[in-house]
Fold:
Amino acid sequence: MSRTMIGLAVAGLIIGAAFGTLALRTRTAEGPSQGQTQVTGKALVGGPFSLIDQTGKHVTDKDFRGKYMLVFFGYTNCPDICPAGLQVMSAALEKLGDRGKDIVPIFITVDPERDTQEKLAAYVKNFTPRLVGLTGSPSDIAATAKAYRVFYQKVPDQSDPKNYSVDHSSIFYLMGKDGNLVAPIPYSTDVAQLTQAIDKALQ
Structure:
């Protein structure tokens, strides 16, 4: 098994654990149904971030309050997963039309050393004009990835020690207007499935 496949397998385990781990609050029901327990809570995914967008503007999660965020992590040198995911995201938002006007698509790099503001600015132009690219210091990116339970790691290029790729988990995070997770959507969804998943989550 290749290192990439191992990395993605680990990423899948981390994602599964993250969405299976809930901040649970339990209480005993009163009245006729006494003795039953009601479980409520929210997934521990998402949180504050402080990054730089493709225009050089400093932004935080609070700048997107009142809007939905459709968040995807990746990097501009990614050969296939990232561009494919962003194309699906862009097409789904176009298909949603006015239904998706309150959704801000966000691409957060996991390769801040190479993905500068200028490089992100050129990259996001290949997709929807609405796409916001975010980068920052390695520590800021690490903190954001940790908040979203995103796995990533550098994989050295054995034929060129100065080069590397980045293994990373791939998932769409639909965050609510309050910044909380609304729905995690698998990367493997196509345009129709992503459109349907977002539309259902917005109901």
In short: The chain has a mean pLDDT of 83. The first helix runs from residue 3 to 20.
